[in-house]
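yo

u said u wanted the structure for the complex thing, so here. seqs first:
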Amino acid sequence: MWNDYFTLINVLPGCIVKPRFGTLDFSDPGLPVEKVQALFEDDFPYLEITPLGMDTLYPVLPLAKPPFKKVESFAPARRQVKRKT
Amino acid sequence: MHFADIERLLTDGKNLGGRSQKIYFGLWTDVAAWPTEPVAPVTLDAADTLSGDILMKAGKGMLELFTTEDAAKLEIKPIGEEGGKGYDLLLSVFAPGLNKKLLGFMNATKNEDMVLIAKDSENQKYLLGCDIRSAKFSGGDGSGTGSTTDGRRGLGMQFAYRAHSPYTYTGSVPLTPSTSA
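structre next:
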């Protein structure tokens, strides 16, 4: 249900008309989540995302560790200094 | 302002006239926040579009008024002298029937400051009202019983809003009461 992911703020649950989306009845728990998410992304002023919505719809993926590569380094060859005997 | 060519601007050739069969109304004093007008717009499109949403005071929302198809229109009428041009936005509606609710609406709004939102057949919205000026009941045409049996009973009402520029409104219409302070 959309209201697990978003909370209606500043208005009582009911109808709001929005261009491109038509009349949306926010007292209906069956509103498609995709539609409500699109509204949220359109800066709709009456929606707030819940922590569950944040985790589910906008998950932050852990940074992948770069593959380990063994770096081989060689010590520079020492210069042979001939000693005078 | 960056001027640009204006070509044939019909999307898929669509250009149906007329208005939708609903208008949205509220009292001007019930509005808590207004959408903002464009400031130093760069493009012609931006010069016509309001930003943001109309927000109502606590316990208040906008309401719907039904109007008969092909009996309502929004007129954008240039007014003023040279150097002082502006616009009258005239919204005419015809609400069928002469019931008490409709007459009560007319009685209650005849001297009130109103805010109205009208939608055209292409789903474009126009806001009549701003933070400094309201839409007002300005008269009507065709109100009454009609004179013949093939006429119609109802109320024809006109609302006028004077603005320096007509803007389209892309925000939402809150038909549910606000809970904010």
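The radius of gyration of chain B is 17 Å. Chain B is about 5% helix and 35% strand.
cya
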